[in-house]
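Aim 2, interim progress: modelling of the iron/sulfur cluster-bound target.
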Amino acid sequence: MRPGSCAKSPGPIARSYGGSGHRPRTSPPFPVSSGLPVGGFGLYARGMAKQLSYHVIHKIFSRFRAARPEPKGELHHTNAYTLLVAVALSAQATDAGVNKVTRALFKAADTPQKMLDLGEEALIEHIKTIGLFRNKARNVMKLSRLLVGDYGGEVPSSRAALQSLPGVGRKTANVVLNMWWRHPAQAVDTHIFRLGNRSGIAPGKDVDAVERAIEDHIPAEFQLHAHHWMILHGRYVCVARKPKCGGCIIRDLCQFEEKTKDDGQL
Ligand code: SF4
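Predicted structure of the complex, ligand included:
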């Protein structure tokens, strides 16, 4: 098993991306009207940018890599199991909100068996500040039971096995595959969806189409970290309401027609 790691802070580049504000997530699938996504992930409904060429995408990701060579996720975790639980808890919640409760929770229970020993009521007490906490607690208990019973207490490393666990969808499975197993899986969230469509890096009318566009168009050398580079850029620079185009390192390559002059400075 890969040695445990702990994503404690956004790191210097993430901080320079604009501070600690996390936008609340909204949940897929997106409402789709006339083939274009509206509402849901806060995407404009005026249309998608055209798919950027190989050479432009190569330039964009070369800049992302130069700015942040080893991007990291922001969810606190200590092993594969705590990562899985943290990602499952983060649906429709912010990473910051999840991190607030998981530090104490994972001290009390950082394995499926310890979670079962802790019990559902105690788990609820830990996570009651997070949206949908009762449902999430039920799923965490069920998946912990399955991990103990069917996987020897280990987190499986295939998408199918991960998705067979209660409360684990494709996005959660992809995050675990990418962050723990270092598989180039692309978990498309609100930030990636917005950035992919605005810029032309990975346009698509729904999450599946954006995931495919990332896999098809981003050069192999960038695939492993594409997920985090795009999330961080979408979360801190290409923000939903007023993107900070003035300070954006890919401004000259992005196709968004309504670029702002905002550079994110207060
Ligand atoms: S130029 Fe603006 S719209 Fe384009 S990626 Fe940068 S912040 Fe987003």
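The chain has two domains: 33-71+185-247, 80-179. The chain has a mean pLDDT of 85.
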